[in-house]
Automatic annotation (TrEMBL):
Family (UniProt): Belongs to the class I-like SAM-binding methyltransferase superfamily. C5-methyltransferase family.
GO biological process, one term: methylation
InterPro entries linked to this entry: BAH_dom (IPR001025), BAH_sf (IPR043151), C5-Methyltransferase (IPR050390), C5_DNA_meth_AS (IPR018117), C5_MeTfrase (IPR001525), C5_meth_CS (IPR031303), Cytosine_MeTrfase1_RFD (IPR022702), SAM-dependent_MTases_sf (IPR029063)
Domain BAH per the UniProt entry, residue ranges: 611-736
Main location: nucleus
Biased composition (Low complexity): 26-36
EC number: 2.1.1.37
Keyword Ligase recorded: no
Cell compartment(s), UniProt: Nucleus
Keyword terms, alphabetized: DNA-binding, Methyltransferase, Nucleus, Repeat, S-adenosyl-L-methionine, Transferase
Name of this chain's protein: Cytosine-specific methyltransferase
Molecular function via GO: chromatin binding; DNA (cytosine-5-)-methyltransferase activity; DNA binding
Top enzyme class: transferase
Length: 1262
């Protein structure tokens, strides 16, 4: 028996034992996907152990922040009105409700089961994956629940199983209790007991039932799953044998469920079977493999009378309506006998738009198994929006394609006749070439500034040529498929013209989603034979701020649009769509670009790639090995421009000196400073290099005053020094002993002063942050000084409280973005809606901002559907559409600047895909569909677009975390470039684009032919980020191994070193251990990163406050014992533990597949990643402190993300404890603050350009 793959949803059906006459509203929560079939198994010939079998299929995020959805809710009312009928036909009596009494020895699901799942989050923190934001609930295990009872948690009164199908399930608190045992897939069930003989496990009181899941059809294997599932927040449970007392409350639902399954199975196996044949074969079909049998549930076999119940018929018809089409059994006589019965009670289908304010879950019935019949031209449009289309009829479009191709061939042959080409007025002669103002062919005059279509030739760019022929690059516009379009601006005497090429949108990254009449001007031009001209092209230049024309997708249309001064430039890497400068600016830029690569002589030095170099300038130098740029001072320049040689005096890094002293145990009082240098007298301090080894200039000053130093180094590429010597010994140097280039220094000082003046005279961007979470992105933007986040939106009440507490001047909306947007539009349209209730259900949202009160919209939509840590992505995951909601805010508010952040998985995520056959991935669809959609939509909204792949570690985060950033500004406003890497962290990988080209990693290289990964500063390490915090260990509970004299002595020794000991073994998931009330820092800041994080910790009296949040959560004893026994060595893990302490899935005799548990961090390296869940027994988890016997604390976790120490993370207080898991989720889902700061500074450069232009030319301000 196959199980349901992820992604299939079912109708919510209400069957009432005592049916009141009422209409049910939308559910507050709704089903997510069923368990994955390939997770329902264990190895053959292996005993099934309860603690061992936490098998974890990927399931949708239950805590998703209220997406807008359309629910398919089916309400069944009054399915059986007569108790006598129910009793007589089922052979049972009407069940008498009783109160369920808890068994004293029962476990609570949230205390023991979930916390022990050492396989619950597969590869969440794999070092090769940067997408660590998938929610902890993405992977949950599957169990069998037997001897069960389902009841109302509040009253403890038992309820019929059918109640779980009601639309008010998610408003109610239903729970279950029963014996939990491992689930073994049917294919591997050698050790699983046969029906009727139960392998009972431990009795467990389950938490709130979130979903009932039935009748999933696996379209790949043509299989209908007959199991009945319920889901809690922590696991899926397959309902097996109910408790004897509960049996009567389960029987009727089981009859309906079983009969439907039998009907479908019969129809699939015999396409001609009729109802009377089915009834005769009831005993045969009743024997099909079900977890439970009729004898077990009813004490008898199923009978024809069971099939006659109106309630059963209604149930069958409801689900047959959903299943018949995808299973292709609609025409089977047996199925028709039910679907054609007009007298059967109908089950009304209500398609309601569920209010996101009331709906925490997606309640959308998947329709991807239903085929919609369309004609070819309609399919051309609908295929970019919908899936499962069935195209019928001949294609009018194909006839048009053939006609255009034939016309091109006729024109091409005619133009080979020289008599048809007549030159116009002569414009001039240059050498052997004569130039003309125009040329006439076949009576049509073509002149300078005309745009023409030409017959395509051979494209020298083979990758572009290949992409042009790809199916994804075919446009509905036939001319785009068969011609090239260029800007015709002069004729030559050799019957040639010189043209600058346009490119059709379908040949760019946009491919399938492009506007059928959009052209983009490229930076390529060449001489083209006049005879290749096909016809004139009607091109309309869009005015500034003008919206693109409606796309009627006419295949023969010759009406294209673009713009000259405000057009979009398609650059070489095909990821930038940029505002085009005017012709004078373009000519000047082309002339400058041609000279940039050449070394040119200037007064006192030389220039290359737009950078001036003089004697006594400070420069970056390419390293001989590694990726850390060296820093030196030019002392001599010779041989310019032919054979240039530059003599450089290299400067030493003060940090190298301090680290050497600390290794010698004589430099503990010294503080590292990555911006501090010294004049080196080491033997290799003078070198001779070529210009190709230089990488730009930096600025170094002799400084000693602390405030002057801090003011100076806040700027990029700024360093200071005040010492001279070797790495072994330094001494003071006076300022007059340190020569600099006075001209360059004064010019640079004037530039900084002018920029500061501009900042004082102008206001920062007024920001609206969507999906703000705890505020990592907003905090970094604010620190840049160029963004003031006026408004922020976050659904999660705790994260919203965190944001408000740390950003008191920001108006925070605790609401989902969909509901808020709808409310805002109602306000703007004058509908006077009532105040909007916050998602906490207690307060009301503040008034929405005015449409012109937002300059900058930024945020990161939930990434779980895109995340590479999501090993079971679902086709048509509703969360994949959330970027469209964020783009809708841009359409409403029309900000000048827009930024969307997400995980790297978004780059390859397809749209309109299908679930793969094995259920683990996606197949087909539009490649990089989400990226194409975002870029295409921004262009349609009037924005120029650039998207980048950034590595947070390159901007000062002590952690590897790659992020995709979409940057957009309105046409005419400078589009920010990528922030240049500052730290020599391993760059993000390059990614292939659908066009065949690469999205290259970010580089600070000035040479376009050498995109290196060098940077001027060393990466921040784990020890450098958390080494000043007070140390503590977890106490070994010795639950598995008793304490020894040696272990006791070690504890005494570590306490003598100042390492406090705290008990960490506890069952309650909300308990904390460590410095729960705050603690003074262990030492002063040891480096600039620590000093930066501690800036806000000084009170008005100049005293530094206690560090807070320096604690962990508690775990069950065996996890604690395993953690404290991992050796205090870098990268030690579970393999270094005694086999009894290892996770059971990797204990002796089992497969060692490279998974890591209990991983210890290397203090001299970086954090692997920040997760939304932190438990040492998770797969690929590297959470153990480098030198202390515990996992990293909340404060250390926050420091890994760059949050300052004064930043608090709000959550619900429970007595003297704080739920640590909520804080971890807030931190793990945040954008690293240093990355956000780097982006904010880059936005600032564009603002400074705008402000400067305003002052010089009177241009409008943003």
């Amino acid at each position: 028996m196959k199980g349901p793959p992820p992604g299939k949803l079912f109708p919510v059906v209400e069957i009432l034992v005592k049916p009141p006459k009422r209409t049910l509203g939308s559910s507050k929560e709704s089903p997510v996907s069923s368990p994955s079939p390939h997770k329902r198994r264990r190895r053959a010939n292996q005993d099934c152990d309860f603690n061992d079998l936490f098998i974890s299929p990927t399931i949708s995020d239950f805590e998703m922040a209220n997406p807008t959805s359309v629910s398919s809710v089916i309400n069944l009312t009054a399915l059986f009105d007569d108790k006598e009928e129910v009793s007589s036909r089922t052979g049972t009596t009407v069940p008498e409700v009783f109160v369920y009494e808890f068994m004293e020895d029962g476990l609570s699901e949230d205390e023991e089961l979930f916390i022990d799942s050492n396989e619950s989050q597969e590869d969440q923190c794999n070092s090769d994956s940067d997408d660590a934001e998938t929610d902890a609930s993405e992977d949950i295990p599957i169990y069998v629940l037997s001897d069960f009872i389902i009841y109302n948690h509040g009253t403890r009164e038992v309820v019929p199983t059918a109640e779980l199908m009601s639309s008010h399930l998610f408003q109610s608190h239903y729970a279950a209790s029963g014996c939990v045992s491992p689930w073994v897939d049917d294919k591997h069930a050698k050790n699983y007991s046969k029906p009727g003989s139960f392998h009972l496990g431990r009795r467990v009181r389950l938490s709130k039932i979130r979903e009932l899941n039935v009748h999933h059809f696996d379209k790949w294997n043509k299989d209908l799953d007959g199991k009945i599932y319920i889901r809690t927040d922590f696991a899926w449970y397959i309902l097996e044998q109910p408790s004897p007392r509960y049996l009567e409350f389960f029987q009727l639902f089981w009859i309906q469920h079983k009969l439907l399954h039998m009907i479908v199975a019969a129809a699939v196996s015999d396409r001609k079977i009729m109802l009377d044949q089915f009834i005769k074969l009831l005993p045969v079909f009743d024997e099909d493999g079900f977890i439970t049998t009729s004898k077990m549930i009813l004490g008898r076999g199923l009978q024809e009378s069971d099939l006659d119940l109106d309630s059963t018929n209604a149930y069958i018809v409801t689900f047959l309506l959903e299943l018949a089409s995808p299973m292709q059994i609609t025409r089977v006589p047996l199925v028709r006998s039910f679907l054609d019965r007009n007298t059967i009670p109908t089950l009304p289908r209500n398609f309601n738009s569920v209010s996101p304010a009331k709906n925490n879950k997606q309640s959308q019935k998947s329709a991807r198994d239903k085929q919609v019949t369309v004609t070819p031209i309609v399919a051309r449009i609908a295929s970019t929006l919908f899936e499962g289309l069935e195209v019928v009829g001949s294609s009018e479009f194909e006839e048009v394609e053939c006609n255009v191709a034939a016309e091109i061939e006729r024109v091409q042959e005619h133009h080979q006749d020289p008599q048809n080409i007549v030159w116009g007025i002569q414009a001039g002669v240059i050498g052997p070439k004569t130039f003309y103002e125009s040329v006439t062919m076949d009576g049509t005059k073509y002149g300078s500034s005309d745009v023409v279509m030409v017959n395509p030739g051979e494209d020298d760019n083979t990758m572009r040529a290949k992409n042009s022929q790809a199916d994804a690059s075919k446009s509905v516009n036939s001319f785009a498929n068969h011609t090239w379009i260029c800007y015709f601006y002069e004729c030559e005497g050799e019957k040639m013209f010189h043209g600058q090429w346009f490119i059709h949108g379908s040949k760019t990254l946009l491919q399938e989603v492009s506007h059928s009449k959009a052209l983009y001007l490229t930076n390529e031009c060449e001489d083209v034979p006049v005879a290749s001209i096909f016809r004139l092209c009607n091109l309309r230049m869009l005015a500034d701020g003008e919206a693109e024309p409606f796309d009627d997708r006419d295949p023969q249309s010759n009406d294209f649009h673009c713009g000259y001064e405000i057009s979009l430039l398609m650059c070489e890497n095909e990821v930038d769509f940029i505002h085009l400068p005017n012709q004078d600016e373009l000519d000047a830029l082309n002339e400058i670009e041609a000279l940039r690569e050449e070394v040119q002589t200037i007064s006192g030095g030389f220039t290359q790639y737009g950078i001036n170099y003089h004697v006594n300038d400070f420069v970056y130098i390419h390293p001989e090995e590694g990726s850390l740029l060296k820093i030196g001072q030019i002392t001599k320049i010779r041989g310019i421009p032919d054979k240039p040689k530059i003599t450089v005096h290299r400067l030493g890094r003060y940090d190298d000196y301090v680290r050497r002293k600390r290794r010698k145990s004589s430099g503990q009082e010294l503080t590292c400073d990555e911006r501090r240098l010294y004049v080196s007298k080491d033997n290799d301090n003078v070198i001779t290099i070529t210009p190709e080894e230089l990488d730009g200039v930096c600025f170094v000053r002799h400084l000693t005053d602390f405030n002057e130093i801090e003011s100076w180094v806040k700027n990029e590429d700024h360093f200071y020094l005040n010492q001279v010597g070797t790495i072994k010994q330094l001494c003071t140097i006076e300022e007059d002993e340190f020569p600099i280039c006075e001209v360059c220094d004064k010019e640079h000082a004037r530039k900084i002063e002018h920029q500061e003046m501009l900042r004082l005279r102008n206001a920062p961007l007024r920001g609206l942050e969507l999906f703000c979470g705890a505020g990592g992105l907003g905090t970094g933007m604010g620190l840049s000084g160029f963004v003031e986040t006026k408004y922020a939106v976050e659904m999660d009440a705790y994260a919203a409280a965190t944001y408000k507490d740390n950003h008191p001047d920001t108006t925070v909306y605790c609401q989902d973005t969909c509901t808020l947007l709808k409310h805002a539009i109602d306000v703007y349209e004058g509908k006077n809606p009532p105040p909007l209730l916050s998602s906490d259900g207690k307060t009301y949202c503040p008034p929405v901002p005015g449409k012109h009160e937002v300059d900058f919209i930024f945020g990161g939509p939930p990434c779980q559907s895109f995340s590479q840590a999501n090993h079971r992505p679902k086709a048509n995951d509703p969360r994949s559409a959330l970027p469209s909601n964020m783009l809708s805010f841009a359409e409403v508010f029309q900000p000048s600047t827009f930024l969307l952040e997400n995980v790297i998985g978004i780059l390859n995520f397809p749209l309109l895909s299908q679930q793969s056959e094995h259920g683990y991935g996606l197949e087909g669809g539009i490649k990089s569909g989400v990226v194409k959609f975002i870029v295409r939509t921004l262009i349609a909204l009037g924005y120029q677009v650039r998207y980048l792949l950034l590595q947070a570690g390159q901007y000062g985060t002590p952690q590897g975390r790659s992020r995709v950033i979409f940057l957009a500004t309105l046409r005419g406003i400078p589009l920010p470039r990528h922030p240049p890497p500052i730290y020599a962290f391993q760059a993000a990988k390059s990614y292939s684009l659908p066009t065949g080209q690469k999205l290259q990693r970010i580089t600070r290289s000035k040479n376009p032919d050498y995109p290196h990964g060098f940077a001027p500063l060393k990466p921040i390490t784990v020890d450098e980020s958390i080494g000043d915090l007070p140390p503590f260990d977890w106490v070994n509970p010795h639950a598995i191994f008793p304490a020894t004299e040696e272990s006791k002595a070690e504890v005494v020794e570590r306490e003598a070193l100042g390492i406090r000991q705290f008990h960490a073994a506890g069952a309650a998931r909300t308990e904390r251990t460590g410095f729960t009330r705050g603690e003074p820092y262990a030492m002063p800041p040891q480096n600039r990163y620590q000093r930066w994080l501690r800036q806000g910790m000084i009170d008005d009296d100049g005293e530094e406050g206690k560090v807070r949040g320096h604690y962990t959560k508690k775990f069950v004893s065996h996890i604690v014992e395993a953690t404290v026994n991992v050796p205090l060595e870098p990268l030690a893990d579970h393999r270094d533990l005694h086999w009894k302490l290892r996770p059971k899935s990797v204990q002796s005799g089992r497969a060692q597949d490279g998974r890591t548990f209990y991983g210890r961090l290397d203090g001299n390296s970086h954090f692997k990643c920040a997760m939304a869940q932190a438990s040492p027994n998770l797969k690929q988890s590297w959470l153990l402190h480098p030198s202390q016997k515990r996992i990293i604390s909340i404060r250390e976790f926050a420091r890994a993300q760059g949050f300052p120490d004064h930043y608090s993370f709000e959550t619900e207080e429970q007595g003297n404890t704080t739920p640590v898991t909520s804080q971890i989720k807030q931190i793990g889902n945040a954008v690293p603050v240093p990355l956000a700061l780097a982006l904010g500074k880059e936005l600032g450069k564009s603002l400074l350009e705008i402000w400067d232009r305003k002052e010089r030319e009177g241009s409008p301000i943003v």
